[in-house]
Amino acid sequence: MTENRQNPGIARPAAEAGGEEAVSSPAAVDKRKAAVEAAAERRKTRAAEKLRENLLRRKQQSRARRAGQADETDGLPAANSSQPDD
């Protein structure tokens, strides 16, 4: 390890110091790209699934509101208390 010139006292690996550079084989790079793409695909699938669940839940809530009585309260019911807490 060598000392970092911009931040004296902070050491950094020799590969970053300009000496030896880390070399990756093309197979390792391809493997890493495939892993990144697979992770991105899993994220997209999970996001789509969550969006579908959210949409179904909102539709169900909307139907429940239409089927029931309308709320006649304005604001928070606890805020309209006639008795002071003092």
Mean pLDDT: 76
Can you write the helix and strand succession as a string?
A: EEH
Number of helices: 1
Q: How far is the N terminus from the C terminus?
A: 67 Å
Q: Return residue spans where pLDDT drops below 50 for at least 5 consecutive residues.
A: none
Radius of gyration: 30 Å
How large is the share of residues in beta strands? under 5%
User: What is the structural class?
Assistant: mainly alpha
Give the helices and strands, then pairings.
Blueprint: E1 2-3, E2 11-12, H1 26-67
Antiparallel strand pairs: 1-2
Annotation keywords:
86 residues, two-stranded antiparallel ribbon
Short synopsis of the structure:
With 86 residues, this protein is mostly helical. The chain contains 1 helix and 2 strands; from the N terminus they run ββα.
If you had to describe this structure to a student in words, what would you say it looks like?
By secondary structure, the protein is mostly helical. It has a domain at 39-65. Helices cover 49% and strands 5% of the residues. The chain is built from 1 helix and 2 strands, in the order E-E-H. The chain has one helix at residues 26-67; strands spanning 2-3, 11-12. It has a two-stranded antiparallel sheet. Strand 1 and strand 2 (11-12) form a beta hairpin. The chain is elongated, with a radius of gyration of 30 Å. It starts with a strand and ends in a 19-residue tail after the last helix. The model has no long low-confidence stretch (mean pLDDT 76).
